[in-house]
Amino acid sequence: MRYIKCLFPLLVFLVFACKKDPEPEVVAPETLAHGMLVLNEGLFQLNNSSLTWVDFNSGGTNSDFFTQKTGRLLGDTGNDMQRYGGKIYIVVNVSSTIEVLNAYTGAPITQISMLNGSTAKQPRSIAFYGNKAFISCFDGFVDVLDTTTLQIIQRIPVGSNPDGITVSNQKLFVTNSGGLNTPVMDSTVSVIDGNSLTELTRIVVGKNPGSIATDFEGDVYVVTRGNYADIPSRLRRIDPNTLSLVETFPFDAGGIARMGDQLLISYYNFNNETNNVALFDAATETIVQNSFLDLSDVETLYGVHYRPADHRIYVLDAMGFTNTGWIHVFSTSGAYLQSYHVGLNPNSILFYE
Amino acid sequence: MRILPVIFLLLLFAGPVSGQGEASGKMLEELEVSATAGKTETAPNVQRLNKDQLKALQPEDAGQLLQKFAGVSLKSYGGLGGMKTISVRGIGGSHTGLVVDGFLLQNSQTGQIDLGTIQAENIESISLSIGGTDGQLLPVSAYLGGSALSIQTFENRFTIDSSIQVRATAKYGSFGQADGYLSLKYNRKRFFAGVFAKYRRADGTYPYYFENGIYPYSGKRVNNDLQERSGGFSLGFRPGEKTILKLNYQLYDAEKGLPGAVILYNPTADQRLNNQSHQLNADFKYIGSNLGIRTYFSGRYEDLQYIDSSYLNLQGFLDQKYYNASAQHGVSFQTYKDLKGFAFLAGVEQNYSTLHSSIADFAQPVRYHLKSVAGATYSYKKILLLAQLGQQSVFDHNRGATAPGDKHLFTPYFLVNARESWSVFGLPRLWAKRTFRMPTFNELYYNQIGNTDLKPEIANQLDLGTTYGFKVRNHRVTFSADAYYNLVENKIVAIPTKNLFIWSMQNVGLVQILGADVQGTWNYSFRSGLLLDLRLNYTFQDVQDISDRNSPTYGDQLPYLPKHSGNADLLVSFRKSGCSVSSFLTSERFALNENNISNRVAGFQVFDASIFHTFSWKKSQVLRVNFTVKNISDQSYAFVRYYVMPGRNYLISLNYALH
To answer: Could you tell me the residue range of the domain that residue B182 belongs to?
Structure first.
């Protein structure tokens, strides 16, 4: 009887946690068509960078694409993804690798380790010219990769913490951010000759240059991000022939995406958490519309992409950087069409028609 | 195996031992200890590990002991030297006060003391009090926290059972671990003086293994070494029968590698942390038969140096220094005499803290924090009622820059507790407490991550529980269960992003915690000398983010808090030998706010076991030899995602005591 007494105070708790409905998952297709491949950056030190396959027919997604194709994880902080010829190149910053996949199937081709002895090169972005890929590395170099042999053949020293990279007039334009020297930072763009593989000059553009892109007529546009305090971000234009800064536009900018002969200038304001996409005419070099898209449902704007095949704009939402992101689709007239749920911090898209 | 250091340390110990052994027949416990006996009615939720249990566990540091308590979620960032922080009942670790020998240890830069830096060799007793705090005449801060971890060390107390006491420990373990600890204490009736020193080192390059998709991924933890030195002295005087004066000082100095998370495909790790702290404590106590008064002072100075030798800036490295100073002074008062059933406590305390850094443009914050508490208990027949009110004012300044506004907060605590058993209901209790913690200097000012608009994080706790115990012949059984509902307002959540030391602030907002702690102990002692001691703990906690109904994480479990966790510890001893087995289990957790598959961190269960034998001479000298195997099943597990913990590892320890 005394033993039974001690059972009385036993409090039993039964709590039924309500599980959320899982999203419709599609299988990773054998050959990639009519869909898009999205690179999700993930977060530092979590090895959770991933690829999402979005099937345009069903609207279904698969955020485990890379692992299903390769049998392993992508790694930590995928910064850039580009297609060149028959290959997809994924630049993984913290893991310090370049993952090369077959562009038609997504099958793995090779993984290029970007270590310099015991120091990680920290690759950031990739651009192509001829049979070479040019990879900006945060350790102050642009690595040249032979796209046939998939070997690094040269390291070209540039400014500090090179970030964005673009091609124009047989030259590569690399933004030297100097981001790890805060508050000093760099303010130049390195110009590399695509044939001789040497740095020709450094153009002073403004503090903390980041995104860089080439318009339909070869003009190079660069965003200088300022110091996030008293020096504001600005969009600037470089003449690819004279290799000089020719114009500074008096508005805030974050990212640049090409849309035909226009540019989409995206900007996420960290201070008041507002998003904006402006439409810019690259021929007349003027703003067409200041607030081009209604982004009231976008939490953290993380870039825009234009898909020529359907004339639509794909807006990346990083959802406060810690929640899985969304891609919102808009028409070129600015009307919202639909959304796809993708992985953590989506930053790059490859479209398949 | 290099056994030489062990032999060397053994020889060292032999020195002071010879010729001693005169044991005082009369055992005089310290005044404050006897005053505490049987007076835990105001602290109904206290879990304690005693000397024997501690010896069986052979912990490396205080942090490892915390997984032995119900309601605690431990985060450990690796093996020896890895940072360890806790959360009690789903509430952030900064709500838990750390009280060592009656003095509060605090760090205003990070808000938490790394429990991996608190040595365990000299711990005589460790207890975790949730709600009301166990102990008498504590620092005012300890009464006002959500919970308190109290440690009583060997060095800082009167124990007049012999004039000279010695404690020495030598440990030798896997991954290049070697520890040595020596403490001497001279006791007189009205006086004690002690000195101690400790050294600990480890290579820390342990192998790890986990599955990367369908492939195995293995390697060795690099840059995980540790060198640690500490030392200090303690003095105690008893000028009169009712007065005690104490002074102690401790130096801690460590250099260690920060291995970081295991980054796939990138084995490099070059970050290091050097840390030195000085802590000086002094107090004066008057303990009469009717009332007790204590005045206390603590000063702490800590410097932290963070180095990244492969940082990709122009210099090619990063070297940042932080200097954190704090001082605390207060007076506590308490009545002992039964004033028609009433008893009272009151206290006032002032805290001052500053932070400086070698970083250009870094803030220069100064904080002045005033705390006061007043409470009364009323005992009537079988119940005790307690009402306590705390008032705190915080004044933050930041030289020439934005600082948070002044804060004034009241925090109440109410308790109804049974004094005698209520038949089948055991000793029931019901309590409610409101506490808060201030944002830390890092949270307020750290470069772009800091936010001077952060509000104090408020925790409301409501607890209903009971304790039941009985004794049948040689069996002693205790059982304790609590259900609780906590609500955390203005929750400040930190998630490590770039590295261990740099966190990003998230203000999750509102957190609702529904939980239960269940504890059971069974103690069996047989006349032949057989002794069994079993401890079982189970914790359930549903820690929901309920800040924003439209957020994708609404209703999700907060990061790194398991729904289920528990531990079992069995100690079996027969006369001078024995063994112990312990197991710790945790269910899955999430690395980020969103409860999806990619954020899942797998649950795990680990087993440790140890065997020991005790040799004794002349009744006053004891040498205990312990052999411990940790993580017997060689499980690959992690508290924090990709901070893979060591596999199976071994530890030999020798504990010598002269009583």
So the answer is: 3-658
